[in-house]
Write the structure tokens for this entry.
Amino acid sequence: MPDRFETISFDELPKHFDAAEAEDKWGQHWDERGVYRYDPTRPREETFVVDTPPPTVSGSLHVGHVFSYTHTDAIVRHRRMRGQNIFYPMGWDDNGLPTERRVQNFFHVRCEPGVPYDPDLKLEPASAKKIKKERPLVVSRRNFIELCNQVTQQDEQAFMALWRRLGLSVDWAQEYATIDDRCRHLAQLSFLDLHEKGHLYSHEAPTMWDVDFQTAVAQAEVEDRPKQGAFHDIRFGVQGSDRSFVISTTRPELLPACVGVTAHPDDERFQDLFGKNAITPLFHAPVPIFPSELADPEKGTGILMVCTFGDQTDVTWWREQKLPLRQVIGRNGRLVELTFGEGDYPSENPEQANRFYAELQGKTVVSARKDIVEMLRAPEGRAAGDDAPLQGEPRPTDQAVKHYEKGDRPLEFVTTRQWFVRLMDKKDQLLERGRQIDWHPRFMQQRYEIWTENLGLDWCVSRQRYFGVAFPVWYRLDAQGEPDFDAPILADAASLPVDPMSDTPPGYEEAQRDQPGGFTGEPDVFDTWFTSSLTPEIGSHWRLDADRHQRLFPADMRPQSHEIIRTWAFYTIAKAHLHEQTVPWHNVVISGWVVDPQRKKLSKSSGNAKTSPPELLDAYTADAVRYWACGARLGTDTAYEEKVFKVGKRLVTKLYNAGKFVLSQEAERHPITHELDRAFVAELAALVAQATAAYDEFEFGKALMATEQFFWARFTDTFLELTKARARGDLGDEAARGSAVAALRLGLNVLLRLFAPVLPYITEEVWSWIFAKETGQPSIHAAPWPSAADFEAVDAPADPGSFALAIDALTVINKRKSDDGVSVGRVTEELTLAANAATAARLEPVWEDVAGAARCQAKTLTSKDGLDDGAFEVVSATFAEKPKKG
RNA sequence: GGGCGGAUAGCUCAGUUGGUAGAGCGCUGGUCUUACAAACCAGUGGUCAUCGGUUCGAACCCGGUUCCGCCCACCA
């Protein structure tokens, strides 16, 4: 009995592919079979390590997530098929401000560290009415953290469900959360290591401060926002003289904080002033006038007031000139209590100064500005303009004002004690590390370079928040109860993770907490980036498991988006450099954004992200959505186009139908011997090479497009049609039939594998019918990526162009049918096709197939001079009558 | 102010080292055709933003300009 191809029975399969069912079924199978599991026994060089971005689980899922995570998954799936041992974890970034904000709104609560813990606190989500009518419930720090944990766990479930449905081939055994014990442990170890190596310091200094969240922020979290400001021209006096001058400022409310006046040393206009004291209006404070290169003679009036603190330059002047500190803006953004004529607040007229200041005290920056302008315009009964300090009216100007990226009000410089990681002295080393990494696309490296070169401050890593990783630090209290910040007590590495607010430091009793001679815990938490900059180390279990670390670090690939190069990428590189003297990963792969037709980034806040990811998956299926995502080029923004989802859905349907057809063709097993089949295989082999090269560059989009193009234009619309007659046994002998079916199956098999990284569900479905058993690979996602090995049993065609030529000939015949209004399937009773002699000779070996596809009963191929090479002409054609219905 | 990316058919985008402009969608016409009407066949459609240069030849290389998006910048 001859060996026959195993086939499927056409009628047993559902007419239409049920994607929802397949998503469910295959998701379960993959889990059960452990297809995506990392094998810890395989060596580093066989392993492909992904440093997956842990999404912020603040509850807002949008298509941007789906987009970029699909990119990573396609790359990962391809690597897995290349035989690599995949380490593809998933983490949840749940600590930090976004969660705190979400919890505050969700339960309508406010955290107050002094409040006692309520072990029985049970809260329901707050209704909109409640939020509107009632004041937020005040809860303890510990209760608040518990609520944060509760909400993030729910959010993580939602994310996980989405990721599974989308088909991310994550190894769920490697799941982590940035607030879990291991991450807290590692973040605190990181702190201890940096401290030991001398990269950490804490000091009290002016720091960028968000007055709403009441926390310090780092340079990387600061963004400029355009704002309408106004120059106020204010006349200053000079001590012991009639001379005066006018400064121009956009922040008149800082006048009580004025500690100096400066102008450029070469500025002719102010030579006589240097070394003298200016007298501030209203407050009559004598302040030194000094020259500085940093003053720009072109700006304003060329001479300006130095305040503590209006901006970064003020901080510089304050330091260099050793000026006094007059911090008038408090941590809550309101003007603090103070008295002129005392201490650091001298005044030549304290009584008047205090009268003015009393009106400003307790006010916000904005209302204090309004009030002080009125005072400057008409101080104490005098009419406006009557020798008033304010010269003319404020002149509007556009300015860029620093804001915390998550905040609403401008940042202030407030003097507080903060912890810093020293980076300013390591810029060159960090730049060098950046150059040791391959950036995809390449130009994205520029972002890193520019950021690093322009870095102006060390990394402030302490935050005055609650839901975060605690500093493993306590301070001794002296006899007066004052903390000794210069010699912090560090936690023992073996005791981590610790919470200094509830754990006691080595050698102390809990009773000594906050007692003179005792200790106090560091209440601050780490900047969330302090933890998330450790994701490669979190994956590798750095300092916890040396063998695992050696197998997983540095990682191979870091996928991320470009707006966080200055934070996530930068800090991760810094950490790997400081801890391990190496790069954290070898490749950075940058996805673009999803944008609306107006080129605006899709986001919930701007209201252009209307469809949620689950809705999208319901409407179009996971494969179709993945198809859309994978059409993108790296680093390039992609428009949100509903049409593209439909195209993806169509592709899935076509794969299903083509699979059914090919795998139902019966024939004896036979090698691929026919010229047309060999020419097809030659083209297929070229496609494989092309797709493989694209994936080598992480360009899944190029690979997909090439594969898709081939699938429609060279497989379903053409090769299938050209071999149909032979595969049915209507044409040629058993060998010809076997060759056709063998080539169809090889084509389908290879194309399925090329599509598998992008379309995991439909490819697995079709693969499961026959190929799973035939190849011994139960899952296509564990099957080998197509390569030359797939084609080595097939001899080269006599003419590599004969497949293309057959397509051209068929197209000409189809055009004739179309022109005659005849369907392609109609029988051709007689056909005479002409080509020049050379072309006719080349077509000869595949002419039977062409005629078969055209359903010819009688056919003639003649040669005719004057036709171009490769051109065909239908000399005559008669078509059968339309078959009668019935 | 400095830098990066983009501008190609009505729309979304390809276009490898310079060599006659491509796909999909849309649109028009045709076809129920034994894998698929959730389909197929055929057709329409472009001064490659703009100006100049190099070249036998430029969408591609060089320079200028204009728009769009983004990143960065001490913001008196």
